[in-house]
Amino acid sequence: MICPLAEQEAEIWVEPDKWLDTIHPFTLGIETAARQSICDKQFWAFIDAYAQGQNKVRLDYKDAFLADPVEELRDVLKGPLYV
Length: 83
Prior knowledge:
With 83 residues, the chain is an all-alpha fold. It is built from 3 helices and no strands.
């Protein structure tokens, strides 16, 4: 299971100052971009496709993360981490 660090404040029912301590052990260092950043990237991909007359838009999953989560997970699994 990959549980990236994102904007989970609304999803984790603990005191606001403790939510990061609650979620951080599950993230394995993987972080998502802010929701608005993801929306902006998608919006500009749609605008670009429209401007070029394309009927389809291909989105890259990496646009949702600060770094490639596959590479980050590989790095974590190489280290002495026990889950």
